[in-house]
Every structure is written in C-alpha cells, then in structure tokens.
Automatic annotation (TrEMBL):
Family: Belongs to the HMG-CoA lyase family.
Protein's UniProt name: Hydroxymethylglutaryl-CoA lyase
Keyword Lyase: yes
Ranges where the Pyruvate carboxyltransferase domain occurs: 1-270
Annotated keywords: Lyase, Metal-binding
InterPro entries: Aldolase_TIM (IPR013785), HMGL (IPR043594), PYR_CT (IPR000891)
Domain of life: Bacteria
UniProt keyword Amino-acid biosynthesis, yes or no: no
Record-linked Gene3D superfamilies: Aldolase class I
PROSITE patterns: PYR_CT
GO MF entry, a single one: lyase activity
Organism: Paractinoplanes durhamensis
Amino acid sequence: MEIVEVGPRDGLQNEKRVLPTGTKVEYVTRALFAGLRRIEVAAFARPDRVPQMADAEEVLRRVPRVDGVRYIALVLNGRGLDRVLALDPAARPHEINYVVVASDEFARRNQGMDTMTSLDGFRAVAEKAREAGLGVTLTVAAAFGCPFTGEVKPDRVRGIVAAAGPLGELCLADTIGVGVPVQVEELAAGVREAAPGVPLRAHFHNTRNTGYANAITAARLGFGALDASLGGIGGCPFAPAATGNIATEDLAYLLNRSGLATGVAVQQAAETGTWIGAELGLTSVPAQLGRAGDYPGNLS
C-alpha cells in the first residue's frame, strides 16, 4: 500500500512558523530515510497567501534526487504550471497535483472561481503538463463536506469527475475531516462509475477522529494510495478549524499490522514527526507513535 507523504506541502502550509529552505530539504531527506518514496514537496501558490510555500522552486532544486522516488508539486492554475515548467528539467517535480474544490462557495474562497470554472483550468493545465512529461493527479477537495455550505452529495463529486476529462489519478480529499467510512464507500462507487479504471487515492484529515477509519476503508476498497503527513501536522489555511492530516507513522503502523506493507519504517517516521514538530515550535504533534512507540518493541 503506497503512502504519499504530504507533510512538506500540506503539513507546513497551515503552520504559523515559516521554515528555512534547508529545514524543508532536511524534512524531505528524513522522509526518504524512513522509506517514503512519493512525496509532495511544494505548492506553486501565491506567496502572499501561502508564505510557507514561497520557496517552492528552491526546494525542488535542492531535494535529493534518488532512483524510485517521485516528487509532487501542487499546482492551482496555469501560472503555477508555468513556474514548474520554467525550472530546469532536472529540478522539476515528477508529477503535479491540481485541486478542484467540490463546493462552489469554498472554491470561490480558495481559488476565486466556482467549481466548474476551476475544472476548465484543470483540463488545460493537465494537457500541458502531460505534454511536458509530468504525471497528473486531480484532487477533488472538500469531497466529503464543505465548511461553508455543509453536506456535499456523492452525485456532485461524481459529476465533477465525469466532466474532468482524461485522468491519470484521482484523489478524493476530506479537507476538513468530516467524512466517515460509509461516505468513502459511496464516493468510491460513484467515481468508479464516472471514471472506470482510474487509479484512486485518498486524502484524509483527522479533525473528528475518523481519518484512520476512513483510510483503512479506502485501503480495503482498493485505493492505491493514501496521503499522510509525518507527525500529523497541517490543515487547510482556507478552511476554518481544519486540523492536520492523518499521521504517516500512525497510518503506516495501521497498514503494516493489517498485512498491507507500506515500506515505511515506523520508528524512523515517528522520530521525523517529532523532529518536525520541534522545528515548528510545537509542544507536541498529533501523531501517537512518537509517544507510544512501535509494537512489538521498536521494529518497523
């Protein structure tokens, strides 16, 4: 089971402390040491709105390039992709992740446009990115609920996916941590009908302590990848009270012990989660493994 490490992007973007580029590069390096092989390292967003990501180009230039490792960058529009493509090819990410928000109100607040206008942008960006040899993921954010307008119906998400055009990978995101396992089942069925055969990925926050139940449900439904952040840090700067992602170390423990090998060394991941929390000035991180330890003993 693949874990996509999103701490260097989604984890850091909601934290008050802006870390130096060197610390971000060390964060990625430690993630590699813990066995993670697909990492979202940066977002090409407006620096005035997301100052934590202002050094996206420099991070990509400096992260270690290792065989078998794939780096992802979040891109919100054509300008973001232009910044990616302006990089030397050796410094580019291997993939881009483009976010379309499921509710119009949240989409306007997050991206200044409604959902379907954002989807038009995705189609144009995806085509240009594929021509440049980049992998493309569409993330449908707030697929499980909107902080401003409430429930998001599965048919709404299904309609977005059906209108998206060709997809390389589809990620369903519970941006504000309201989802429960039955929603995972309903959404999976709907998007598989709308986009048969497209690999599925999920992105869960643990705001209401349901993130891990949702993750194991997605794994059992055949999702190929799950997002998580070391330490469980992060959230969404545009969603009120959105807390962190499910923690990489806790998720790896759950999956490994369930017979779904992740390749993640739990103890090293937990140590990195504790370390990044200290770098951010946090008294503790949401992850449990750093306190409880692996079981049995300190095995990975």
